[in-house]
Design brief:
CATH architecture: 3-Layer(aba) Sandwich
Order of helices and strands: EHHEEEHEEEEHEHEEEH
CATH topology: Rossmann fold
Largest sheet: 8 strands, mixed
Helix content: 25-40%
Number of helices: 6
Bound molecules: 1-O-pyrophosphono-5-O-phosphono-alpha-D-ribofuranose
Shape: globular
CATH class: Alpha Beta
Radius of gyration: 18 Å
Strand content: 25-35%
Number of domains: 1
Structural class: alpha/beta
């Protein structure tokens, strides 16, 4: 994770984080890495532990998702809004001004949905089913079902893992075909790899990415280092371990 000194007050990375290395990392004002607060570091410590129970893994993952989603929603267009408090005083806050929907990259992206409902109640959620081939690491698109009027939507694209970037690129193709340019997409991501980020942001320089960690590298099996293992299997309990 980046040190706070690499993150502006708004959370925008101004220079490469120390863990990113030189393996194709793209410096961009569109990349937002969560500040390495004690709360984030504690959650990462728990979910990266290979011995974490499923309960700990899912609970702490959702803790980080809430941080990611709050940051992502804070990047959406908004305007000031005044309300009257019960004490009769004016409070000036803000309200979102544009249409917003979410799209989950199934299966792992669905794990963000429970926190999404809490942050943006009632938001519409589309689905794109993409699976990475276990031997080639190439993504395959099986299915998509999106909300109406995608050409007028800002999209929170829920994809926890950005390894080679192939799955995210495939999802962005689906959104573009539906009329949503990457300039109106915020990818909400738990872990990202430097080469995956470089690939995605080179093809989509207008895409915004919110992540909680830029990892050190990808290994020969297209897993991130130090990484978290197969997120989907650990979250949904299909990894064959534990109860
Ligand atoms: C994993 C992960 C991402 C994708 C990332 O999904 O959840 O969707 O791989 O890899 P990439 O950046 O190299 O494309 P997987 O296909 O294993 O499916 P899952 O969501 O069911 O775990």
């Amino acid at each position: 994770m980046p040190s706070p000194s690499h993150v502006s007050a708004g959370g925008t990375v101004l220079s490469p984080p120390p863990t990113a290395g030189d393996s194709g990392f793209v410096v961009s004002q569109k990349l937002h890495v969560l500040p390495a607060t004690p709360a984030l570091l504690a959650a990462h410590t728990l979910i990266r532990d290979r011995d974490a129970s499923r309960e700990v893994f899912t609970t702490q993952s959702r803790r980080v998702f809430r941080m990611l989603l709050e940051t992502a929603v804070g990047l959406l267009p908004s305007e000031p809004k005044e309300v009257l408090t019960p004490a009769g005083h004016v409070f000036t806050g803000l309200v979102l001004t544009e249409n917003v929907c979410a799209v989950s990259v199934v299966r792992a992206g669905e794990s963000l949905e429970s926190e999404l409902w809490a942050v943006v109640p009632g938001v519409r959620v589309g689905k794109i089913l993409i699976q990475r081939d276990k031997s080639t690491a190439q993504p395959r698109l099986y299915y998509s079902h999106l909300p109406p009027n995608m050409e007028h939507q800002h999209v929170l694209l829920l994809e926890p893992m950005l390894a080679t970037g192939g799955s995210l690129l495939a999802a962005l193709d689906v959104l573009a075909s539906a009329g949503t340019p990457s300039s109106r997409v915020i990818a909400v991501n738990l872990l990202s790899s430097p080469p995956g980020l470089a690939r995605v942001m080179e093809e989509h320089p207008d895409l915004t990415v919110v992540t909680s960690s830029v990892e050190q590298e990808l290994d020969d099996n297209a897993f991130m280092v130090p990484g978290i293992g197969d997120f989907g299997d650990r979250y949904f309990g299909t990894d064959g371990g534990g109860s």
